[in-house]
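Format is chain and fold; as here:
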Amino acid sequence: MHVWEGVAAGLAHGLLHEFSKKEMLDYALAASVLKLTIGGDFNLVTDAEIRAVICKQSSKLVIR
């Protein structure tokens, strides 16, 4: 999974859950950035991890 695939997946999630345009973009970008911290083709981040990045509740360092 590459960065743009992560963005597309985040946008699809936002559409399915009827996010506003801003929420959808924030979610998609946060999901794709977190995906870069994981090797391989699967995005194993959780909704809670994505929302923590959006709310700036997570640290700058992601420990995997």
In short: Residues 21-35 form the longest helix (15 residues).
